[in-house]
Amino acid sequence: MGKSIGIDLGTANTIVYVKGKGIVLREPSVVAVEARTRRVVAVGNEAKLMLGKTPGSITAMRPLKDGVIAEFDVTASMLHHFFNRAAGNSLFSRPRVIICIPYGVTEVEKRAVQDVTLEAGAQSVALIEEPIAAAIGSGLKVGNAQGCMIVDIGGGTTEVAVISLGGIVLSTSLRSAGDELDEAIIAYMKREHNILIGEMTAEMLKKNIGSVHPQTDRGTMVVRGRNLLNGLPATIAVSSAEIRKAMAEEVAHIIECIRTTLENTPPELASDIYDNGIMLAGGGALLNGLDLLISQVTGIRTTVAKSPLDCVAFGIGHVIESMGELSGIVTFRSR
To answer: What is residue 157's predicted lDDT score, i.e. its pLDDT?
Structure first.
């Protein structure tokens, strides 16, 4: 019998949960391949360090885009590598895998995730919708008749869902999340300071001094980039207020998505959400002041989950550990 493992296959990071062990692996969803032969050179942390630094013969890429698979073979190689890493030194027969997908993806995209997981060496695969997994992992009582709202802001997608009686009543998926925030910071630096910075620098600015509310500003940070006027390396101090301004448009899209979902929520469930509040999960939940901003705009108490980055993985793990109790949530498919 193969082991049961859960995978949070994210645009930015992949997290692997093994039954009985918990989270055993957390790595960036980045792969470096030889441009000519497509042979995998590096995966995860090692590949992420190569982003923007590779010679012409090597390409470092993210094989997922906006939460769905963009490069089939590369994603299969990445998952196969993670399966082996999760096995450690044990004899790891083909695992049974539960893997998450964004809500509202097409049947073709669902099939692609199943096929790529089986191609990577899984014995069987089951899909679970990301908002359900995030809600379970953040401690919400999804099986109750009381409605709850989860906002899962990942790297490629933002999922806003109203959940009741173990299912999604209403959900809005937005292709605006962590990656778009990084791109907005790069565009701002280019526009306002004539300085070109890389993806990793933009992500560092977002994590270290990023803020979406004036009360949670975090000072300044010195970054290096290339001056677009003379082509020479440049150093500049960037303030938290500037990063807030850079991300404002993308953050406004996320807030509008939450508002739209609330407006379309049935009255009884809207009343439950007002009582229970809104739960934030995913890496985007760590943005300083986001909970405060959402509370101000909606008038509903907003809370950040205990471990926002791991919510989806913990949710899948909970399903794996209690398959008898939650067997209706997933259905396995074999080759």
So the answer is: 87
